[in-house]
């Protein structure tokens, strides 16, 4: 009782004090506060970037051993390291495979999902909700849940070790259909009604109205899907045996083995890591605005 | 141009009946407004005519052709929406021509000529290369109209086209729409929830409620001879007062008897059947006035609220347990709580059946008995 | 009374839906059904399939190794969820409170979303290496013997840190968006009432953004269960002595090191049920918190 009275009194005194402060004092206080926040934020950024920074530094050194902070100076072997990884150890092949796989999956998913979302939003037909649920339910079936039977199925089809195996199973995407559907639902209904009255067909409506009006979202989902596909590891690991077809994620491990043993290996592994990180990172930085916009749709 | 006929049209959505077997005939070249509260089925009716919805029962005819199951594009109608439905990524020109090109029955020269003509009429010819985002609400509205105009359709369908504009612009566009119609004389069906728009624009006004057509008439007749209590209360602002009364008869003299008043009813059709029963007496606020002094023709009422509107003084009054509103002369010296004597303009009285809501009697019918209508409607 | 469903040609609808439906059917539903079927067989590529009924499940229930893997997975996922969300919430709040340069900080913090888990694993393996890691000597100077190649708990922690590092960015994306949607008026009211920063975060913001937090709990759980596979594979191979042998890694080994496809399928079915329960949980929880969502 007494305690709470005391607290209330102190608070009242503090309030009257702060009210009595001059404006310049308050601005100064605000500025030091902001400065502290900036210092904190910069520290956080540094900590998050640090591991990759170290990797980048190591990728410029001939010997890949850094055992103390004093070793963290850039070496002069950046060019030769990257050349050796890409060409000498043929990492370009893994990168290319990853790239082709990711682009194929992104393009395929976009087409397939656009058509599905078009039907789900703009067509009237029986059991529509059931169809939508059928698509959404696949969210419960991620690769880890089904890669064992999928492996058997693909092998039986004779499709293991093929490009088909690392692209086609990824083409159906509940996430993409869902994001597109949400976006289409935010477009006024009167647009499609006008189109209908004017005799504009569904595909022309998709091509001339929906796609141009969905540019940001399409870019956003493309980045999400690219990152998702590029980062796939488990499925290519089990279904691809031929090195010539392997993707960068798994290729990294092969690089570790190939780059002979000893200290050189680590600078090669870090070089490969930086190379593997670059494409998705570049997309994220370039298209961050569209990506963030799309994420806010996904969560709904 | 063509006439449009709806016969026994019914529309259900998952068991909910939106339109309950309506019949409506819209003559060639008419400007018909459809008005009613939200959810009354007016928009659904329009969409049925457009072909955006398919009727559950009944037929729709345009000219001598039945269009009930026909695709919208083959009905030769153009529609204007409340939110204009412009494609935000296309220029004004492309917005206007996009639909025409899809229809495929216009040549390029024809399209150019039509666009030039329509945009000149609407005064938007200097906006052709802009996108909708750079236009004001009024300009977007004109573009939407332009898009409908260039198609040169048989019927214009408009779904609350002015509702997104501010009050001033709405009045201006209203006049322009009327002018456009007198110029092109294309059959126009115009849906609105705003009774002023409905009354000022329509040659004929269709009043709908709860999926049914209440009345189809010219604006003035709708106001003077409401066929149902709903129409009487919906048209006019403030709404017509409804007082429950008993109808007494003394020889050929009829009176509406309330708790504190007896109002003589002029002789006209319907009085005889009403006599001796309860009825609702319909009195418009402007048919009541404050008398200079209490006499035999006046009755007393208590003022509960005063609202000075500038050109008149709106009074809310009470007599017994019945409340009503009236327009008094501006600057009348009354205060809430005052008891004032009121007189009523007896030739502007209406009686309605308290159960069915149907009109039994219009006092003014004595003066103008003829009832004509070019628009037929069955309720 | 407006609807977008203006097209009615069922044949067209069917044709347009066909690619999604066929791929879902063949590569998503069929394998899942087949996993259930296979789980009743002793199946291997070499010797063909033999029906064994519930034998695989009985074996699962009786396997202390598997139970340990379940426990480790749950513990790992729980640590990932708590670690990621605590760190991400602090970072998001920090960015939210900063007045200028928000966008730059945001990108500088969320980029690990694009980081391949395999890269995360290799980089961490390198910098935390017990022998040649850059920080090893400093940590050992503090009296800690860095030997996570043989010390289970240490291995668990190192993989956990790598997993958290990779996932924080994704969480910050959603949290800053949610914080940005908190009405300015609430912040001002709280400030006028003299509520401290931390109190404002915990008492005002967290309840308001709780739908986002629920969503993230689920995403992080799934991440902790599955997406950390490359890190485990590259850093510890499930070891030492099973200390990081999470379910997905265990499943991978059963199928592709021991080639016991029937047994692996039974493990897949268990995973499927776990994912189903998780999703159901999210569904129920977000229903419950819908009030805050607005």
TrEMBL record, chain A:
The keyword Coiled coil does not apply. The chain crosses the membrane at residues 37-58, 99-125, 131-151, 163-185, 205-226, 264-287. Keywords: Cell membrane, Membrane, Transmembrane, Transmembrane helix, Transport. GO terms for biological process: transmembrane transport. It is a multi-pass membrane protein. The keyword Lyase does not apply. CDD domains: TM_PBP2. Pfam families: BPD_transp_1 (PF00528). It is found in: Cell membrane. InterPro entries: MetI-like, MetI-like_sf. Residues 95-287 form the ABC transmembrane type-1 domain. Belongs to the binding-protein-dependent transport system permease family. This is Glycerol-3-phosphate ABC transporter permease. The lineage of its organism: Archaea, Methanobacteriati, Methanobacteriota, Stenosarchaea group, Halobacteria.
TrEMBL record, chain B:
GO terms for cellular component: ATP-binding cassette (ABC) transporter complex, substrate-binding subunit-containing. SUPFAM superfamilies: MOP-like, P-loop containing nucleoside triphosphate hydrolases. Belongs to the ABC transporter superfamily. Carbohydrate uptake transporter-1 (CUT1) (TC 3.A.1.1) family. It is a peripheral membrane protein. Part of the ABC transporter complex XacGHIJK involved in the uptake of xylose and arabinose. Responsible for energy coupling to the transport system. Coiled coil: none annotated. The keyword Membrane applies. Residues 4-235 form the ABC transporter domain. This is ABC-type D-xylose/L-arabinose transporter. One of its GO terms (molecular function) is ATP binding. It comes from Haloarcula sebkhae. Keywords: ATP-binding, Cell membrane, Membrane, Nucleotide-binding, Translocase, Transport. It catalyses: L-arabinose(out) + ATP + H2O = L-arabinose(in) + ADP + phosphate + H(+); D-xylose(out) + ATP + H2O = D-xylose(in) + ADP + phosphate + H(+). The complex is composed of two ATP-binding proteins (XacJ and XacK), two transmembrane proteins (XacH and XacI) and a solute-binding protein (XacG). SMART domains: AAA. PROSITE patterns: ABC_TRANSPORTER_1, ABC_TRANSPORTER_2. GO terms for biological process: carbohydrate transport. It holds the Pfam family ABC_tran.
Automatic annotation (TrEMBL), chain C:
Keywords: Cell inner membrane, Cell membrane, Membrane, Transmembrane, Transmembrane helix, Transport. It is found in: Cell inner membrane; Cell membrane. InterPro entries: MetI-like (IPR000515), MetI-like_sf (IPR035906), UgpAE/MalFG_permease (IPR050809). The chain crosses the membrane at residues 12-30, 70-95, 104-128, 148-165, 204-226, 261-280. PROSITE patterns: ABC_TM1 (PS50928). GO terms for cellular component: plasma membrane. SUPFAM superfamilies: MetI-like. Its main location: membrane. It is a multi-pass membrane protein. It holds the Pfam family BPD_transp_1. Residues 70-282 form the ABC transmembrane type-1 domain. It comes from the Archaea. The keyword Isomerase does not apply. GO terms for biological process: transmembrane transport. Belongs to the binding-protein-dependent transport system permease family. The complex is composed of two ATP-binding proteins (UgpC), two transmembrane proteins (UgpA and UgpE) and a solute-binding protein (UgpB). This is sn-glycerol-3-phosphate transport system permease protein UgpA.
């Amino acid at each position: 009782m007494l305690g709470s009275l005391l607290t209330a009194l102190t608070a009242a005194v503090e309030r009257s004090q702060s009210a009595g402060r001059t404006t310049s004092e308050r601005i100064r206080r605000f500025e030091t506060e902001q400065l502290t926040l900036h210092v904190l934020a910069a520290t956080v950024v540094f900590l998050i970037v640090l591991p990759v920074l170290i990797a980048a530094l190591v990728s410029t050194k001939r010997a890949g051993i850094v055992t103390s902070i004093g070793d963290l100076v850039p070496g002069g072997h950046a060019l030769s390291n990257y050349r050796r990884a890409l060409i000498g150890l043929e990492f370009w092949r893994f990168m290319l495979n990853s790239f082709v796989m990711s682009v194929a999956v992104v393009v395929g998913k976009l087409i397939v999902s656009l058509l599905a979302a078009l039907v789900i939003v703009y067509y009237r037909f029986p059991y529509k909700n059931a169809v939508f649920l059928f698509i959404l339910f696949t969210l419960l079936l991620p690769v880890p849940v089904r890669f064992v039977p999928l492996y058997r199925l693909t092998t039986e089809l004779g499709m293991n070790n093929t490009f088909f195996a690392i692209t086609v199973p990824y083409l159906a995407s509940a996430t993409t259909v869902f994001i597109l559907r949400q976006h289409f639902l935010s477009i006024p209904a009167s647009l499609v009604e006008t189109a209908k009255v004017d005799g504009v067909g569904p595909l022309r409506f998709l091509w001339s109205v929906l796609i141009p009006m969905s540019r940001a979202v399409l870019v956003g989902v493309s980045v999400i899907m690219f990152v998702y596909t590029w980062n796939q590891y488990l499925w290519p690991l089990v279904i691809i045996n031929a090195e010539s077809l392997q993707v960068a994620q798994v290729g990294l491990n092969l690089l570790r083995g190939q780059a002979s043993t000893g200290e050189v290996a680590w600078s090669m592994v870090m070089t490969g890591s930086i190379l593997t990180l670059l494409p998705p990172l570049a997309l994220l930085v370039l298209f961050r605005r569209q990506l963030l916009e799309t994420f806010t749709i996904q969560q709904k | 141009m063509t006439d449009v006929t709806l016969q026994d049209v019914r529309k259900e959505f998952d068991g909910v009946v939106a339109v309950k077997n309506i019949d409506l005939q819209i003559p060639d070249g008419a400007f018909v407004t459809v008005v009613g509260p939200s959810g009354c089925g007016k928009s659904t009716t329009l969409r049925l005519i457009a072909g955006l919805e398919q009727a559950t029962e009944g037929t729709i005819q345009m000219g001598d052709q039945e269009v009930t199951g026909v695709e919208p594009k083959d009905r030769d109608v153009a529609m204007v929406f409340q939110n204009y439905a412009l494609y935000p990524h296309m220029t004004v020109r492309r917005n206007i021509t996009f639909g025409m090109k899809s229809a495929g029955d216009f040549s390029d020269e024809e399209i150019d000529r039509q666009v030039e003509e329509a945009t000149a009429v609407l005064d938007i010819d200097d906006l052709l290369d802009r996108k909708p985002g750079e236009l004001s609400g009024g300009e977007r509205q004109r573009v939407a109209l332009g898009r409908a105009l260039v198609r040169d359709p048989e019927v214009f369908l408009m779904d609350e086209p002015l509702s997104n504009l501010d009050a001033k612009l709405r009045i201006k566009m209203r006049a322009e729409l009327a002018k456009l119609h007198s110029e092109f004389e294309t059959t126009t069906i115009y849906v609105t929830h705003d009774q002023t728009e409905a009354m000022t624009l329509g040659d004929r006004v269709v009043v709908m409620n709860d999926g049914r057509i209440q009345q189809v008439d010219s604006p003035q007749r709708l106001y003077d001879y409401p066929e149902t209590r709903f129409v009487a209360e919906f048209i006019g602002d403030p709404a017509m007062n409804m007082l429950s009364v008993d109808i007494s008869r003394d020889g050929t003299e009829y009176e509406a008897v309330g708790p504190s008043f007896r109002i003589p009813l002029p002789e006209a059709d319907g009085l005889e059947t009403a006599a001796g029963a309860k009825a609702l007496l319909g009195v418009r606020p402007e048919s009541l006035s404050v008398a200079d002094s209490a006499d035999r023709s006046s009755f007393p009422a208590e003022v509960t609220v005063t609202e000075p509107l500038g050109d008149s003084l709106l009074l809310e009054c009470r007599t017994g347990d019945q409340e009503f509103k009236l327009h008094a002369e501006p600057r009348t010296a009354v205060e809430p709580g005052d008891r004032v004597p009121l007189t009523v303009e007896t030739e502007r009285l209406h009686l309605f059946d308290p159960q069915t809501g149907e009109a039994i009697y219009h006092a003014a019918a004595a003066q103008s008995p003829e009832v004509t209508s070019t628009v037929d409607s069955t309720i | 009374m407006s609807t977008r469903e203006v097209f009615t040609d069922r044949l067209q609808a069917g044709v347009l839906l066909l690619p999604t439906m066929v791929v879902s059917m063949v590569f998503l539903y069929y394998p899942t059904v087949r996993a259930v079927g296979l789980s009743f067989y002793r199946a291997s590529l070499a010797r063909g399939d033999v029906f064994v009924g519930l034998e695989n499940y009985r074996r699962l229930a009786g396997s202390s190794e598997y139970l340990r893997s379940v426990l480790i997975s749950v513990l790992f996922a729980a640590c990932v969820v708590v670690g990621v969300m605590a760190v991400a919430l602090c970072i998001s709040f920090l960015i939210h409170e900063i007045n200028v340069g928000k966008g730059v900080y945001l990108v500088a913090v969320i980029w690990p979303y694009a980081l391949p888990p395999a890269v995360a694993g290799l980089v961490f393996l390198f910098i935390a290496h017990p022998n040649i890691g850059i920080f090893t000597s400093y940590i050992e100077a503090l009296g800690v013997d860095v030997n996570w190649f043989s010390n289970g708990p240490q291995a668990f922690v190192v993989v956990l840190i790598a997993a958290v590092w990779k996932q924080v960015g994704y969480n910050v994306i959603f949290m800053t968006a949610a914080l940005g949607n908190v009405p300015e008026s609430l912040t001002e009211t709280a400030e006028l009432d003299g509520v401290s920063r931390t109190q404002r975060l915990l008492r005002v913001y967290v309840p308001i953004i709780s739908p986002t937090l629920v969503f993230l709990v689920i995403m992080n759980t799934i991440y902790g269960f599955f997406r950390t596979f490359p890190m485990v594979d590259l850093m510890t191979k499930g070891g030492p002595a099973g200390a990081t042998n999470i379910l997905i890694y265990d499943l991978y080994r059963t199928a592709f090191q021991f080639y016991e496809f029937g047994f692996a399928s039974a493990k897949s079915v268990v995973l499927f049920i776990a994912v189903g329960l998780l999703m159901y949980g999210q569904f129920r929880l977000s229903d419950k918190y819908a009030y805050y969502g607005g």
